[in-house]
Amino acid sequence: MNTPEPPIPALPSSTTLIGKLGVVALISGLLVAMVYEYTKPIIAENQRAALEGALFKVLPASAESRLTYRLQDDRLVRVPDNTPNNGDLFYAGYDKDRKLVGIALTAAAQGYQDTVRILYAYDPYNSCITGFAVLKSTETPGFGDKIDKDPAFLENFQCLDAKVNDEGSALAHGIRTVRHGTKKNPWEIDAISGSTITSNAVGRMLDKSGQLFHPVIAKNLNLLENAQPATQP
Amino acid sequence: MSTPATKQETPLTLETFTAGLWKENPIFVMMLGLCPTLAVTNTLTNSLAMGAATIFVLVGSNALISGLRHFIPKQIRITTYIIIIATFVTLVDYLIQAISLDLYNALGAFIQLIVVNCLILGRAEAFASKNSFNKSVVSAAGMGVGFTFALACLGSVRELLGSGKLLGFQVFSDNFEPWVVMILPPGGFIVLGSWLLLFKWLEQRRTRKIIRTDAATHCTVRQNP
User: Fold this and answer.
1) How confident is the model over B1-15, as a mean pLDDT?
2) How far apart are the C-alpha atoms of B120 and B106, rounded to whole Å?
3) Is residue A186 classed exposed, middle or buried when 0-12, 13-18 and 19+ CB atoms within 10 A define those classes?
4) Domain ranges in chain A?
5) Chain A interface, mutation test: which of B3, B105, B111, B113, most A Cβ atoms within 10 Å?
């Protein structure tokens, strides 16, 4: 006697499957939207605090107020201080006599693990890069993370040449990182031995940012000098 | 067609929670989720943060999957699980950014990569989709704590030997020369291998002891029937 075969269950229709998937997606979307709305102001505040800390470190000690500018088609447009920085902003620092004392700019490039993002100080009168603070880095501990600790590497930034050429169109000399111990020119960065990829990333990001921002800053120096700041750095 | 519930579901016991801690430890026994295990355990802080994020995703996703297990059709269950897991990973991503940007930067892409941690999808498919809400949550919490315990085991050794610190506090004197290799990827493999060796040895010792005790009991019974 043959045993009866178990009945094959009927497949649900495509409409049912799509409908049920839609319900799950709706629940997911609601959860994400709720948490996003709740955390958005907190995240923005954290980012602002991190930027403020970096600005305090990078701008000269005499800076008591600052203004935020956006680069827009070769022009500088003043924007509110709380504008999110997508890499197109820079910050001008002023002393108590409202005199321009320094400029802070962001720069980013691919490092060994991920993108390294820094805020660096630019002295527009001496055309020098005078220091930087790391905003984001996940470089290898003990190697790539030495860029803001290694004294020999930081010496590169006492006055790294970032002069604009006579035509005012680009940097006179592209900033580049050279092998450890082979630095000959003031626009070169002496790499950290064992952290070449991160050192190169610093050179690349400063060159990219310098080529984009420094000529415009040089052209609009009068505008920056005559601006009237009111906010605290 | 919805996934049928198990006919004979075992009751919720303490074992449901403790299984993940030791007997079915995700890292030391099941060897699941080794990518973040090796990548983020260079400090104890990172290990604990990754562990906490994983517990959140594991418990949240298992709770929702278990709650919807009769509603989710079998044919689209994996797609649905991935949507749910990705949702909780997105939530934990926002929450960590809100708690600490430094921590968020330190954990890097590994927060987002929790979505492909096979431990989470594995628990969803093997446990949450077949068990009650309470049991799934308790089991997920046990697995998460077990995962965190294993990450902490690795993170503490790597941070201590690799930088002479623990939770950022200096433990060894300045004369200590850090073993930088310990906070690099090879250090992850070395420390994981060493822990596995230790646990295997302990387990074998325990098994041998049980066998010896059993044999001794049999001998005593034969001599004194």
Assistant:
1) 62
2) 22
3) middle
4) 43-225
5) B105
Inspect the interface and report whether the beta carbons of A21 and B101 lie closer than 8 Å. no
Question: How many whole angstroms from its chain centre is CA A4?
Answer: 70
Which pairing describes strands B165-166 and B169-170: parallel, antiparallel, or unpaired?
A: antiparallel
- B122 near A CB under 8 A: no
Q: Read off the pLDDT band of A142 (50, 70, 90).
A: low
Helix, strand, or coil (residue A66): strand
The DSSP annotation for B13-81 comes to -HHHHHTTTTTT-TTTTS---HHHHHHSTTSHHHHHHHHHHHHHHHHHHHHHHHHTTTTSBGGGHHHHH
d(CA B74, CA B39) in angstroms, rounded, equals 34
Spatial distance between the Cα atoms of A193 and A177, rounded to a whole number of angstroms: 12
Q: What is the pLDDT of residue A141?
A: 63
- pLDDT at site B224: 65
What is the model's pLDDT at position B222? 66
Q: What's the CA gap between B69 and B135, in Å, rounded? A: 13
- Provide the 10 A C-beta neighbour count for residue A113: 17
CB atoms closer than 10 angstroms to residue B30 = 16
Amino acid letter at A93?
A: G
Whole-number CA gyration radius for chain B: 21
Label the pairing between strands A188-190 and A176-178.
Answer: parallel
Model confidence band, residue B191 (pLDDT cutoffs 50, 70, 90):
very high
Angle between helices A14-58 and B77-99 (to 10 degrees): 20
- What would the two tokens of residue B116 be? 């492909």
Q: What is the ipTM of this complex?
A: 0.79
Neighbours of B12 (CB within 10 A): 16
Pairing of strands A115-123, A100-110: antiparallel
Residue A35 is nearest to which of B64, B94, B108, comparing CB atoms?
A: B94
CA distance A60 to A126: 14
pLDDT tens digit sequence for A61-105: 878 888 999 988 778 889 988 788 888 889 999 988 888 999 999
Cα–Cα nearest to B53, from B151, B122, B161, B123: B151
Does an H or E element contain B162, and which?
helix B133-163
Q: Give the three-class secondary structure for A134.
A: strand
pLDDT at B20: 82
The domains of chain B are located at 17-200
The overall average pLDDT reported for chain A is 88
Question: Chain B residue with minimal CA distance to A115?
Answer: B108
Chain A environment of B179 (Cβ under 8 Å): none
Whole-structure pTM value = 0.76
